[in-house]
Design goal:
The protein is of the alpha+beta class. It contains nine helices and 21 strands. Strand 5 and strand 6 form a beta hairpin. Helix 5 runs antiparallel to helix 7 and helix 7 packs antiparallel against helix 8. The two termini are 48 Å apart.
């Protein structure tokens, strides 16, 4: 048991766990996460997609083994911190006591001692009077560098995991010219959407305008699959796309007119009995020599020759009809004019609380400060006696030694 505990809290175990977490995180960034199964089949083939889904690679950040690695790594960091912290608390006092008792290594005369003390004072060394002289110290916070590094890594893992695992995710569609209203009142308006660019190359892109609930903040940006829009606590991705039919309904009795979007099968009627039942929209068709139509059911580009599959219902009679853009069907005083379809984006909207990002940024800032303390703020003590001085530090202070020798004109002696 002791050997197991010793290994779990060892640096070797921590490095192994950290590398494994990084590799899984890299895989999670390269493999699209939480997508529909067919997308993986199209991208990787049936067998590879089946394997990826089976091992959880399509939702890595919610797998049991990712959780287990993070828990073990957090345990390793906590144990390292607990073990190191008491030693860290004692280190400053121990080195201060050692400096008080230290014998002089380098001779010092009165004039040179004053020059040395002045130099240390200018460099903001802390002065503590001691018997037969003084102790100058600096960078005592450097003792905490290692502890704070472990703590910052632990916080990065905790907040990073919460950011990855706890976002509120919504998959929503929005038609060009329309807007979505999110839970907090933020609105997302789709200004434009296209499947192909000017050259005909596939380029799924949306131009969105996002406005805060109070209207004080607004941002417009074109988004693509790998170029999301960030707005406050929201991150909006170009997720998928669809094509919606359009029909203009005209009431010739009063001249009223309305254009409706058709995304799902529906019955369009004024009186509830007579009207048009919309079934589906197809991207194109093939027509043989006898005039028979074969409908094309799918395409990866814009609908070139769209066809509406509908049924007319009049006086209890139902008739199946194929309608093309600009075709008009009139039933009594109501006419239905089918228009060219419009393409619309499917958006994935992630919402993460700002305090989580604040905690993550704080953790990274703490890590930078901790690494600075580790590498650039080594604790140093200078014991100055009446006739000599010595330098003490947990790390090499060759630079300071040379500076003080040059200051007081001490000649370097051979070892």
């Amino acid at each position: 048991m002791k050997k197991t505990l010793r290994f779990i809290r060892s640096m070797k175990c921590g490095m192994i766990l950290l590398v494994l977490v990084m590799l899984l995180s890299l895989a999670g960034s390269l493999i699209p996460q939480q997508e529909a199964s067919m997308r993986y089949v199209r991208a990787y083939g049936a067998q590879t997609a089946q394997f990826l889904i089976a091992v959880g690679a399509t939702d890595i950040f919610h797998t049991w083994y990712f959780y287990a690695l993070e828990i073990l790594l957090c345990l390793n960091l906590v144990l390292c911190s607990i073990v190191r912290f008491p030693r860290t608390l004692k280190a400053n006092g121990e080195w201060t006591d050692r400096a008080r008792r230290a014998e002089g290594e380098h001779p010092l005369t009165g004039e040179k001692r004053e020059k040395l003390c002045g130099f240390l004072t200018v460099r903001h060394y802390r002065l503590e009077q001691a018997a037969d002289g003084a102790v100058y110290s600096k960078n005592a916070a450097g003792f905490y560098g290692s502890f704070l590094t472990h703590l910052s890594i632990l916080l990065v893992l905790l907040f990073g995991s919460l950011v990855l695992m706890t976002p509120d995710i919504q998959d929503l569609t929005v038609l060009p010219g329309s807007a979505l209203t999110l839970a907090d009142g933020t609105t997302v308006t789709c200004d434009q959407f296209h499947i192909t660019d000017e050259t005909g190359r596939l380029d799924y892109a949306s131009v969105l305008t996002v406005r805060s609930a109070d209207g004080q903040r607004e941002k417009q940006q074109e988004i693509r699959v790998n170029q999301p829009l960030r707005f406050g606590e929201y991150k909006i991705y170009q997720q998928t796309y669809g094509t919606a039919g359009r029909v203009r309904i005209t009431n010739h009795t009063n001249g009223a007119e309305e254009v409706m979007f058709l995304t799902d099968p529906c019955f369009l009627s004024i009186d509830g009995r007579n009207g048009v039942y919309y079934q589906a929209l197809y991207p194109g068709f093939l027509r043989d020599a006898e005039g028979n139509y074969t409908l094309i059911t799918s395409t990866s580009v814009s609908y070139q020759d769209p066809v509406y599959a509908i049924q007319t219902v009049s006086d209890g009679m139902t008739t199946s009809v194929l309608a093309f853009p600009e075709d008009e069907l009139r039933l009594g005083d109501i006419s239905f004019t089918f228009l060219s379809p419009t393409e619309y984006p499917g958006l994935r909207i992630k919402h993460v609380s700002s305090w989580l990002f604040g905690g993550l940024y704080f953790s990274f800032g703490l890590m930078v400060a901790a690494l600075y303390l580790c590498f650039f703020a080594a604790p140093v003590y200078v014991r100055v006696r009446e006739d000599s001085y010595t330098i003490l530090s947990p790390k090499n202070q060759q630079g300071l030694i040379l500076d003080l020798r040059a200051l007081i004109g001490e000649k370097e002696t051979d070892p």
